[in-house]
């Protein structure tokens, strides 16, 4: 690769952490991801959540039915782990090709997590079975104790909860989703070489820090969970993502909410990045002078961790610039505001 390429062809990326929602929202946002990606790990935090293999099969059919004609995009389905989840159903779902992974939300940690896990002991039989049949555990890694400062909840989870899971289930593959801290980077570096721990990193956590949320006034569209941390953490995430190390990979956590639900006295957590996900990551790798490592992060490391082949086709990016789309209409009554809406990015998908 030349030092300052104007054009870049890489294997088609996958998104290992995506919220597609359902109904009109799904129909509006899915074309964005389907245009860029080969596959995506689809998060199960619907209302009600996607708990069983039968529910995941119904949800997958809805997604496939909402795809633009001719799209080869493949949704990879996840189970929402609850205290009452049946290990046999997880195993059957895995064997039937329905489940790719299982998502654990500590109860009340984030958007639509009320049915999440209250006690690790209760899900131990599920985690044992997942290790046995090869279903990775994807974790929203924040403690829910409201006495713990919101900016510390990820680091405390890594310190106190993650070791319990790892020690009790040493053969379980774990993905720490959307890491936001230097502590997250360090623990994944430490245990990544065992093949049992990896992390997704979002585009927005590579671009914003906690001051961004208050720049000139409160900016509800930059509120997500885990919340963005100090600048030192953003820099640690950028270094990790662009390091080429195989345990860090693409996961947007693109999480659309209607504008009215964001611009509210009690606004929802979630940032919508799917409209320009690949362009946002490319911008970061270019700024870091690491475009030669973009493909590993976007298209190779994720499939390798999930024991899947990389996509067989490619995408091409051009350094001709792009204006991030403005408000995305959902159903004539509600709309979503994409991250960096109306701003210029350096790269665009050809
Ligand atoms: N990331 C977020 O801020 N929100 C996600 C939930 C999640 O991934 O934690 C959502 O579903 O809106
Ligand atoms: Zn989450
Ligand atoms: Zn998420």
Automatic annotation (TrEMBL):
It comes from the Bacteria. The modification N6-carboxylysine is found at residue 103. The keyword Disulfide bond does not apply. It catalyses: (S)-dihydroorotate + H2O = N-carbamoyl-L-aspartate + H(+). It is an enzyme of class 3 (hydrolase). This is Dihydroorotase. Its EC number is 3.5.2.3. Zn(2+) 2 binds at residues 103, 140, 178. Catalyzes the reversible cyclization of carbamoyl aspartate to dihydroorotate. Substrate binds at residues 19-21, 45, 140, 225, 257, 269. It comes from Niveispirillum cyanobacteriorum.
């Amino acid at each position: 690769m030349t030092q300052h390429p104007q054009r870049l062809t890489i294997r088609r990326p996958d998104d290992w952490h995506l919220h597609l929602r359902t109904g009109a929202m799904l129909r509006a946002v899915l074309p964005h991801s389907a245009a860029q990606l080969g596959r995506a790990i689809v998060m199960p935090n619907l209302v009600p959540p996607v708990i069983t293999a039968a529910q995941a099969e119904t949800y997958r059919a809805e997604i496939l039915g909402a795809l633009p004609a001719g799209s080869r995009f493949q949704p990879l389905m996840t189970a929402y782990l609850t205290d009452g989840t049946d290990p046999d159903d997880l195993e059957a779902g895995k064997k039937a090709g329905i489940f790719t992974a299982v998502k654990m939300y500590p109860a009340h940690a984030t958007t639509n997590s009320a049915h999440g896990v209250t006690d690790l002991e209760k899900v131990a039989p599920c985690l044992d079975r997942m290790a046995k049949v090869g279903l990775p555990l994807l974790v929203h890694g924040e403690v829910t104790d409201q006495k713990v400062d919101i900016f510390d909840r990820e680091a405390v989870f890594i310190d106190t909860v993650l070791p319990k899971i790892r020690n009790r289930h040493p053969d379980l593959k774990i993905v720490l989703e959307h890491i936001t801290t230097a502590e997250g980077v360090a623990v994944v570096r430490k245990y990544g070489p065992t093949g049992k721990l990896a992390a997704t990193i979002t585009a927005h956590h590579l671009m914003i820090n906690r001051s961004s949320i208050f720049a000139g006034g409160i900016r509800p569209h930059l509120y997500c969970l885990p919340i963005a941390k100090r600048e030192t953490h953003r820099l640690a995430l950028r270094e990790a993502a662009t390091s080429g190390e195989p345990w860090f990979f693409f996961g947007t956590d693109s999480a659309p909410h209607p504008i009215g639900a964001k611009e509210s006295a009690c606004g929802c957590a979630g940032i919508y990045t799917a409209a320009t996900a690949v362009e946002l990551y490319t911008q970061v790798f270019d700024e870091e002078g690491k475009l030669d490592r973009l493909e590993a992060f976007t298209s190779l490391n994720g499939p390798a961790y999930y024991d899947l082949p990389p996509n067989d086709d490619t995408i091409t990016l051009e350094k001709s610039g792009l204006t991030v789309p403005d408000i995305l209409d959902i159903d004539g009554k509600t709309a979503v505001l994409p991250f960096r809406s109306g701003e210029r990015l350096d790269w665009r998908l050809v």
